[in-house]
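Tutorial sheet, problem 5. The nine components below are modelled jointly, 1425 residues in total.
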Amino acid sequence: MRRVAQIAATFALAFLVYLVLTIPSGPLGLWSLDELLAGAVISFLVALVSYRLLWERGGGRLLQPWRWVLFLVYLLGPFFLAMAKANLDVAYRVITGRIRPGIVRFNPGLRTDAGRTFLANSITLTPGTLTLEVDEATGDFYVHWINVRNVDPTPEEVCGPFPKWAKVVAE
Amino acid sequence: MREALTVLTGQGYWSPLIWAAAALGTFLLAGLLWWRGRREYKRGTEQELPFVSGERVENPRVGALHLYWGLTEALRPLLERLRGWHSGVVNDYAGWFVVVLGVVLLLLLL
Amino acid sequence: MIGNLPFVACMVLIALGLWTLVFKRNLIKLVIGIGLIESGVNLFLVALGYVRGGVPPIYTYAPAGAPMVLPTPQALTLTSIVIGLATTALMLAFAVVIYRHKGTLDARKIRDLRG
Amino acid sequence: MIVELSFGVAAAVLLAYALVCAIRLGIGPTAADRAVALDTINTLVVAIMVLVGAAFDLMIILDVALVYALLSFVGTLYIARYLEEGLK
Amino acid sequence: MGAHIPILAIAVPLLGGFATPLLAKLHRRLRDLWALLVVLFVGACVGYVAVHVFAQGLWVYVLGARSPQETLAPGGFPIRIMLVVDGMSAFMGIIAGLLALVAFPFALKFLPEEEGKNLALTLGLLLLAGILGMAYTGDLFNFFVFLEVTSIAACALIGYRTWTSRAPEAAFKTMLLYSLSGLLFLLAVALLYGEYGALNLAYLSAQLRGSRVDRLALALFLGALAMKAAAAPVHFWAPDAYGEAPAAQTLLLVVNTQVSLYGLWRVLFTLYGGVWDAGLGWLVVAMGLLTLVVAAFMALLQTDLGRLVAYGAVSQIGYMMLGVGVGLATLAGRPDYGLVALKGGVFHMLNDALTVGLLFLCVGAVEWATGTRDLRELGGLGHGLPEVALCFLLASLALAGIPPLNGFASKILIYEGSFRLSPILTAIAVLASILLLAVYARAFQGAFLGPRAEVPRRVPAVFLLAMAVLAVGIVVLGLVPGFFLEGVVTPAAEALWRGRAQYLAAVLGG
Amino acid sequence: MTVVVRTVARVLFPVALVFGGYVIMHGHLTPGGGFQGGAVAASALAMVLVAFGAGRLKDKKGLLSALESLGGTAFVVLGFLGLGLTYFANVLAGSYGLFGRPVPYGPNPGDLNTAGTLPLMNWAVGFKVLAGLGAAVLLFALFGGEDDR
Amino acid sequence: MSALIYAFLAIGAVFNGLGAVALLRFPDVYTRIHGATKCTTFGSIFSILAVVVHGAVRGGGDGIGMVIRAALALVFLLLTNPTGSHALARAAHRAGIKPFQAVVDRLEERK
Amino acid sequence: MSRWVALAAFLLVAGFLLFGAVALRPFGDPPRTEMDQYFNRYSQPEVAANNAVTAIVFDYRGYDTLGEATVLFTAVTGVALILRRLRA
Amino acid sequence: MTLWASLLTMSLAMTVLAGLLAVVLRDLLAAALALGAQGLFLSLAFYLLQAPDVAIAQAGIGAALTTAIFLLAIRRTRRKEEE
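Model answer (structure tokens):
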């Protein structure tokens, strides 16, 4: 039963991708019947092949729709701002060449793979930080920081509100 | 039947049957000689050993490698050059290909 | 405009590959050289098929009345690309096995078969 | 039409940047530098493909950019994986 | 079904190749039976095609056309791929089918039963399909595709013995040169396409004007196909490859070489037949003579039986090039001796397939029995393996051109033709022949004569049967050469000699 | 590789497969086809291979080679389908049956249900390329591992 | 709307240029990854957003298709780029490349 | 073989290739396009495929594609043969 | 039109440049990377020459699979070219 649910969820993801890819195709709303049928068959095959991989470590929970809404909010709000800031920061450093790099460690207290991935990618794209390694046992993040202000920082110092968002969106 | 057995070469023809007959005759002759000698051949005697200038040698076999020693020795410069071409380095082979291509191009385009 | 520059670029790629084959001694480098010749030939084929101001030969959503580039060379190039990958894979497999036996990839040392 | 032309100009500018990255690909002292340059070029080329597709006003050829965005990641992963072993 | 025989001859071995790994998963015997059935079917198909073509002229088969008028577009240019089987193609098909029929039963026994056997059988079938595809196709790009099929399959087979270091080395070298030649072939096809916008051989042949780009393409064709056919200064891969491949598969490699040579003839006679150049014939003759002499001398130096036989096989390529090159050089005036030499060259392809095939089978049998091929260690095998010794003797005599055997029948034609062109050619060819006789005498003496030696392993009956087939072929071709010459070789040679007009007419109509 | 890469690979794997399927399915309408889609899907396999290690796909080798053989066989057999006319004749096109809807000349939005045997051949080749390239990468990755010799 | 497109294109060009310059100017691998990844991702986002806006303005089947594909390319870039650079940076560290003038290196200490 | 001979031959061949590129018909302006015009015009009515390239690959030149699939299959079989686990 | 030509010229120039790098770099890993870059620019050139089918194939095969196979092969052999 559990397996069927997992397959169904994977199928939903795959079918969604397929539908998005074939949007302006026909009379049934945005799609034609052929596309829907073909998409269903392809998505079903793909779901059979890949559901195990997707669900293996709870990754499938990412498919819950409210997370997507939150993710969009996050993407357009804090993340985008941070990213813009990051780029101005890098621009400044490119021009002045003033850097104080180092690799620091902190523990944001995330437990799931999804949350860690989410945070790591956010960190990589935002001000002056670059995830180098995520310790799977302890959840420690090792981050290359281009302008080290504190050798043993707290998570907030490095990446602001992201860990909280990560908890909300991905855990 | 005659056509099947001959090869017309433009100048003349060649018929393998004559050759076959001649070869058969030769084989018969050889067989006769062999058969004549066979009667005096006795196993296990000195006759089984090969005759090497009257000497008795341990391994009486003439190695195949040394069969044309004189010829290879005489042609050594040529053969060494040929062997050098077959160097085993794949770049050289590709280089030969480029050379051939260049020669053919020169001949055809100039 | 740009004249026959694309063709020249293809031939330069092919010449680079030939240079690699003749003068570079590492087996994997030789495979790279074959890959270069391969891409030169592919580019040559596609460049042959270009028609000035053409659109891809696909009618779905194509602008009406626009000239289309020639489709045949593209079909040939598809075939050629896959063949190139197949060749590369096989040659690299040989290189790996050779390295396993001889511990080197230098063409000058891999010459058991000579003479 | 001027919009399409501006897309083309932007693509040309990005291609010039890719040339700059190719310099790093050539000189980069370590293989990691080169890999970073390649990764950057990948990103740039995806953007270029999207821009050129818009400049041609052909929607279907944007599929190429999609494929590239997906697959350059695989290439980068392979490079990272075998860079990490240090090779020999 | 009769109308589809040419494509079935290619599609069925392909299907066989694809299905063999699947069948091997089911049962081993089933796989063997399947491979044999496919090869038998192919043999029947090529036989049927040959009979049909020799009786009724060219056979054009258009792929994918839904109606006959789809064959040619309104402008008179062919748009689809077509198979065009003329006398020469049918002849090549016969050679391929014959050697495959011999090689596969041999291979089934010869290859050790392990993981690689399924794959080797698959590759053998695919190689066979590629060879037939090259022989039958009438489209240049299609020729290239099948050239690559044969290249890859052949090289994978050469590298079969991965546990030695020599086989991968030979395979890598061969693969490098093969793929180089394939790519340059493709470049030449692309040049022609750029000039004339077509890929069909007959259509291109009708359109060629002999411009500089055409000549560039011709040079690339010539270089690429000469490399693949192991002509002299680019023959270096051949001894490595022949020597290191498993014996049964070497037979297919020999056919592979010959079919490349066939491609060269196709390009020179049919494609460039309209704009051709007498100097080209001399170029082919020169390459042939160089091949003859170099390979014969190199054979003299060998200590490895397989490699020695391989050099002998390379030198036979020289004979074919000599014969056909004389024909090409005299094509303009069309004197009859040109045709004689051409016949000799074409006939020699068949003879070479039989004799060299038999020699490689003998080498394989020797290796099977003793586990080595080194002439320094071999000796005295004639006592233990009398049948193999007899076959080896027969084949080497035939290869050296000793009269009542088939080698002489083709060589005398080549000698006659080339003598009228220039006696020097004949003199060199005869000298090389004598040298080859010496070489094979040495090999025979080294391997089979001498004091009785232990033979650790018995040679199975299948081996002897396969060898007997080829040996009987050698003797029969030697004793009744006229029969084959009239029935098989002359149509093939005339397809090259005067066949261009018919070829074009059959494809393009009118 | 790290948890980050693995998680992203988990998500991207089905997406890439669907994308490959899309490219194969729309081969006769948009750029793409069996080879391209197969290559995309094979790259997805290669991604799993690199993110999770070769061990993950080790037991799939037989499956991949069987799939490849099946794809090749299907392709040849689809060619035999036209044997009433000639080999590779597209008997399904314009027949109003499976994939049989005819298409008018000129630009049109495209309809999946067209082109006769082409989509079927696309699928055969797609599976073949997917399995073949995946098997090739897998073989390279597995060679010389601790289980060899 | 075209003003928005031009603005996006300009921002994209500027930030991509910054990325390229950063790749050339920064002293070691990690800082280069900083510059290159962030700037080119940000710049490419804007370049692609320009196409999205253009497609939306243009409308019709083509326009919608353009929006969809450009947006998907954007999503893929956002998903894969940081992951790829993370993998590269980690690989560089594991391959033994020391960060330039680092004030602290906790990852090295861990080993 | 001497390095210099190879170098000279290489330069010769490269020169001829470049000459061929220049002597070929002008880029973007193919002189003979009957076959391709046929494909562009008739691939829709005959094959019912909008993509002329796919129509060529799988219909007009489907036999080539069969060969190509065979090449790929052969190469993968070859790789499996070369990289197989050896006998003990 | 000239814009298109300059784009094409640049991508062709970079194809050749990356090819040159693939030949001259002694580090085989770097050479493989350069070959990947060359395939990438080649794909861009195909794209500009209005051949999206070929560009997809080149992107899929040149970018991901060729690089992967080369790197897997280099991993099993020696990284530096010995001279």
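Marking note: Chain G touches chain A at residues 15, 18, 21-22, 25-28, 30-31, 33-35, 37-39, 41-42, 61, 64-65, 68, 72, 78-79, 81-83, 85-86, 89-90, 93, 99-108, 110 (CB under 8 Å). Full credit if you identified this.
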